[in-house]
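Input sequence (164 aa), recorded before submission:
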Amino acid sequence: MKKSLSLLILPLAACGTGDEPGNNAAAGVPAKAVQTSSLTGLYEGGEAPQRNQMCIVDRPSGGAGFGIVVWGPEQRSCSGSGVAVRHGNVLRLTMAGDEQCTIEARIEDRRVTLPQTVPEGCAYYCGSGARLAGATFDKTGGEVGDAMRAVDLVGDTLCGSVGP
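Predicted structure, token format:
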């Protein structure tokens, strides 16, 4: 009994939350820290199987392009793309589309948090019952390739047209 119990405990001891450095060390794969010196990367939040995603790609000319998908109930969602500009802990996301929508999100370390209230025009980018307000995203990858893994509602690359 002791032997089988210790076999159960050993794998559990090697498990982590996934947030600490070196979480792949048990598998022999060194963990790579996510860069936070630039906005470029993949940001994810929400629950599986359809996680909210935001990708950002810095532009050489200044600012950055972004794409965003936030899932709501019953497969409804919000989506859009535009320009992202950081000023300290504020990340201003301005949608490029038919309605005015500029969101002043909060960015701290690897987390982006959208405010609890967004401008009225932002509803244009959402299906019935879905909302952008209050969504949070954690940076899970810091390279352009990571950003390109984000997909839109039909599975196309979310940041394919917002790059440099």
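Checked by second reader. The radius of gyration is 18 Å.
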